């Protein structure tokens, strides 16, 4: 497929560069755990692009890399899950900043290590793995993972994988970022936020709109990030950090302020023309109250 060939080289090169700069200790051992710097205090409730209140940790496994609140074992709550799929040729390290940002907000992020994620096999395996870790009294995740609230996301080929995995009954919402074409959104039965880049020349906005247009059976939104190309989300996620965080906080944490970014007459992203070049909500999304996404 042409879109796969076009994407492989730049993501693979970037992954190698980031791996080298991170040092061998971060990704070498199957059970290695690394701890990120502590996040600052919680920011204003509606500043979803700011770091959350949790210090974060990383655990690199054979199939999945976990990004999670560092002190999860001592947490007084269960933390919802986001499963992640990489773009073609990519690895979780390429998207580290975004995945750590979500972890700082209180999510357990399970990123499939595979550079060919389209079938969603590793993403589903990540849920199985976390289910086992949550039930293991010897695990730091014991009884701290909220398996009743799971979202799926990914970039490019991984965005298509998020749509594929969206048919899994364990998934509560999907957020495909610039998704490749090899997916069938008709099988999805949960709310979807489909993100495109205005200047994306690999996954054209029209391809993402096609998924949105086909998603007339679920609450679906289309957001086109102004000025973004296919690799804007790589490294520093920039304009993708806040809306993705708000979407998952709304659907997996019941955050009403976050829900108002997408639903109800206020619809924060609908009036933010500095960030968005195009925002669309289908009829089912228009009927979702802001307070109850």
From TrEMBL:
Keywords, ordered alphabetically: Signal
Pfam families: PETase
Signal peptide coordinates: 1-24
UniProt entry tagged with the keyword Signal: yes
Keyword Signal in record: yes
Record InterPro entries: AB_hydrolase_fold, PET_hydrolase/cutinase-like, TAT_signal
Domain PET hydrolase/cutinase-like: 101-262
PANTHER family registered for this protein in UniProt: CARBOXYLESTERASE TYPE B DOMAIN-CONTAINING PROTEIN (PTHR33428:SF14), CHLOROPHYLLASE-2, CHLOROPLASTIC (PTHR33428)
UniProt-recorded name of the protein: Acetylxylan esterase
């Amino acid at each position: 497929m042409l879109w796969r060939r076009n994407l492989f080289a730049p993501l693979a090169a970037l992954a190698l560069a980031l791996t080298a700069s991170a040092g061998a200790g971060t990704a070498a051992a199957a059970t290695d755990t690394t701890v990120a710097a502590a996040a600052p205090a919680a920011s204003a409730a509606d500043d979803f692009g700011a770091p959350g209140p949790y210090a974060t940790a990383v655990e690199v496994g054979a199939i999945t890399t976990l990004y999670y609140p560092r002190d999860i074992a001592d947490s007084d709550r269960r933390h919802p899950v986001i499963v992640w799929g990489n773009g073609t040729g990519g690895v979780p390290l390429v998207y580290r900043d975004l995945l750590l940002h979500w972890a700082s907000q209180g999510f357990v992020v399970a990123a499939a290590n595979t550079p060919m994620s389209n079938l969603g096999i590793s993403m589903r395996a990540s849920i199985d793995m976390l289910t086992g870790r949550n039930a293991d009294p010897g695990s730091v995740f014991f009884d701290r993972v909220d398996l009743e609230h799971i979202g799926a996301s990914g970039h490019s080929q991984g965005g298509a994988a998020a749509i594929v995995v969206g048919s899994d009954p364990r998934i509560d919402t999907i957020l495909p970022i610039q998704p490749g074409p090899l997916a069938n959104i008709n099988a999805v039965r949960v709310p979807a936020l489909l993100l495109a880049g205005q200047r994306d020349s690999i996954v054209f906005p029209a391809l993402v709109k096609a998924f949105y247009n086909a998603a007339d059976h679920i609450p679906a939104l289309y957001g086109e990030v102004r000025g973004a190309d296919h690799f804007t989300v790589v490294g520093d996620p920039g304009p993708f950090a806040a809306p993705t965080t708000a979407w998952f906080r709304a659907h997996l944490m019941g955050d009403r302020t976050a829900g108002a970014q997408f639903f109800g007459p206020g619809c924060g992203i609908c009036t933010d023309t500095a960030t968005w070049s195009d925002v669309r909500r289908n009829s089912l999304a228009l009927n979702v109250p802001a307070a109850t996404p």
